[in-house]
Amino acid sequence: MDFELLKTDGAARLGRITTAHGIIDTPVFMPVGTAASVKALTIEELKRLAPQIILNNTYHLMLRPGADLIEKLGGVHCLMNWDGAVLSDSGGFQVWSLASMRKIREDGVEFRSHLDGSLQFLSPEVSVGIQTKMGVDIAMAFDECPAYGLSHAEVEKSMELTHRWARRSLAARTTTALFGIVQGGVYPDLRERSAEEISAMDFDGVAIGGVSVGETKSEMLDVMRHTAPLLPADRPRYLMGVGTPQDLLDGVAAGIDMFDCVMPTRNARNGTLFTSEGKISIKNARFAADEGPLDPNCACVTCRTASRAYLRHLYVTGEIAALVYNTIHNVFFYLDLMRRVRQAIALDSFGAFRETFLSAPINEGS
């Protein structure tokens, strides 16, 4: 993997990542395909949306269908028939979410599968090995994600474990590009120490982890804005699991290059859609006789072919097509937003673009 920083506009960065499966223009949003599938989309629909990179998840794929079978089938690209780049989460966040079913040790984490209760184990070596078998373009180091609300001493202990695991992750990698993860909770001094230690290691990129775990929006923004400038300028910077369109713009303004979040797909399945005229709930009765497009300023398939009335009808009657149409639109909205962000940075007008975008009522909440 190679990264080239092409230009800056303030702290906003325009870059290019080159992988074995194509070029990734940054800033970039990665749709989440947790189990090797972006929910509600076929691969052909995903290809038409044309994300340059998507995200898979180590934890879920190690349980089903299993790393050995994925490797036997030629890796996740062959399994999915996907020819774009893939980044894999290491499984650390998912293990964190299993707090009542896990046991953290120095060597790794023992936990119970959420599927059948079977005993499982993940360590830096196991996680990197699984990601290697999956054949992803970018793997993530295995980290320990501290819960929100822990004391400074507890977060510091967790952070130091993440640093030890980061070194072991690096030692275990072979040819796959590997990103390290900065932890430290909401404590600025710990974020500074973690950024310094992780940046000093030979990672291909550096991520800000441990956000969107229960902290307030202002706390998340403080962590992101404080940490991003501390990361190496010559490597991609990745903010994990964030967020709303406004979060993406705030991240770009702070110097972040890569984002992922389930928000566009999850919201789509809940009937919440992002449009240039505001975020709407398509199940609202006011759309029952609305013959207009979902978003008159959008060029996606949904907006070109389906009225708001039809989309509402599909959703309230429980038709599967509603989830497909909604997901196509929301993913397109996010990808197109990042395309326009890149264009604005190239023209040295990102500040004005961000101000105009944030003046519209489309970025509220989740």
Q: How many domains, in number, for the residues?
A: 2
What average pLDDT do the residues reach? 95
- Based on CA atoms alone, the radius of gyration comes out at 20 Å
- Outline the low-pLDDT stretches: none
Q: Please tell me the CATH architecture of the largest domain by its name.
A: Alpha-Beta Barrel
DSSP strand count: 16
Q: Looking at CATH, which topology of the largest domain would you report? A: TIM Barrel
CATH homologous superfamily title of the largest domain: Queuine tRNA-ribosyltransferase-like
What is the molecular shape? Answer: globular
Query: Distance between the terminal alpha carbons, to the nearest Å?
Result: 33 Å
CATH class of the largest domain: Alpha Beta
Structural class: alpha/beta
Strand content: 15-25%
The side-by-side strand order for the widest beta sheet comes to: 4-14-13-12-11-10-6-5
Q: Classify the helix fraction into a percent range.
A: 40-55%
Biggest β-sheet description: 8 strands, parallel
Q: Work out the helix count.
A: 15
